[in-house]
Amino acid sequence: MLIAGNWKMNGGQQALGEVRQLTGLITSKGAEILICPPATLVTQMAQAVAGTGISVGGQDCHPEASGAHTGDIAPELLKDAGAQSVILGHSERRADHGESDSLVQAKTRAAWRAGLRAIVCVGETAQQRSAGLTIAVVTGQLSGSLPGWSGQAALDQVLVIAYEPVWAIGTGLVPSNEDIIAVHAAIRTHLLQAFGPAGKTVKILYGGSVKPDNAQTILHLPEVNGALVGGASLKAADFARIINSV
Ligand code: PGA
Fold this sequence. Notes:
Bound molecules: 2-phosphoglycolic acid
Distance between the termini: 7 Å
Number of helices: 11
Mean pLDDT: 97
Structural class: alpha/beta
Strand content: 15-25%
Radius of gyration: 17 Å
Strand order of the largest sheet: 1-2-3-4-5-6-7-8
């Protein structure tokens, strides 16, 4: 199980204090924990969690390794700063910055080039769900966003999928258990088709309004291998309760 915290554009020195508290609150041994703070905090966070088993990730990267791209961050720079993973194709980036599947695919390749694990996000909007397009949208995003893998490392070391229905993010709404099960099963089928037996090993996270009160149920559904947590990852006590539901 992987429990990943996505701090989005939040956090500061106070939030670093929350992380120091977090380690004292974790009782579950079954979860791998990842925190993705804003890029400005990656180095300090990596220092703060050194030796705790918690790892640090970025929230986006540029496809190129260096160059004239003001304001962007190469995956190589994230890696240098202490990140081991990077979230890619989050719906807020797809919406706010018009990120396409092919850009997410280029970023995934770039993350692999730099030695980062890519956490590739997919998910349908409310409109797409009511039009009955959820599975088609999600599998279409996977087809467009995932490159082929022929590297040395095992696929599960370099790729994680996060299913995040857009309408569930930050709203307190979550799909029914049956809906989560159906989408995760479709993602698993796609991974097996795309990568062969290695597709079985890739973790599929659920994200979108995961809270201390619903984590236990969601994390025990078939093919749910962890969670990507936004708002509830900012408070040590809440994040610890989610981690301890594993
Ligand atoms: P949320 O965000 O947990 O605040 O809904 C999840 C995400 O966007 O990754």
